[in-house]
Amino acid sequence: MKLKVLAALLVGSVCVGGAVFAQTADDKKWISQCLSDNQDAKASASVVAAYCGCMNNKMSSDETRSITQWEKANPNARRACEREAGWN
């Protein structure tokens, strides 16, 4: 449970390639949902947090689908974020 809380805190600012992306309340909502959707994943909480942040950053700001829904329609983005997050 503590790892999940840590992952949620890490999502507050996602660092990718040294850049920090500011997140809106909407971003945080979608990332939180992604963390919840992946709570049973066989990956560490920090990997899941990095993956969810990466996927959120690839999505358009006017997207209405959840990250989990969007990733199914965008397998190339999913694979890229899996690699970036270290999800093996």
List keywords for this structure.
88 residues; mainly alpha
Uncertain ranges: 8-20
- Give me the strand/helix succession: HEEHHHH
Radius of gyration: 12 Å
- Overall mean confidence score, pLDDT: 82
Number of domains: 1
Q: Give the helix level as a range of percent.
A: 55-70%
Can you tell me about this structure?
With about 90 residues, the protein is mainly alpha-helical. The protein has one domain (about 1-5, about 25-85). It is built from 5 helices and 2 strands. The protein has helices spanning about 1-10, 25-35, 45-60, 65-75, 75-85, and strands spanning about 15, 20. The protein has a two-stranded antiparallel ribbon with strand order 1-2. A hairpin with a 2-residue loop joins strand 1 and strand 2 (about 20). Helix 2 (about 25-35) crosses helix 3 (about 45-60). It is globular, with a radius of gyration of 12 Å. Residues about 10-20 have low confidence and may be disordered.
Quick overview of this protein structure:
By secondary structure, this protein is mainly alpha-helical. Helices cover about 60% and strands about 5% of the residues.
SSE layout and pairing:
Elements: H1 2-10, E1 14-16, E2 19-21, H2 25-37, H3 45-58, H4 67-73, H5 75-85
Antiparallel strand pairs: 1-2
Helix pairs in contact: 1-3, 2-3, 3-5
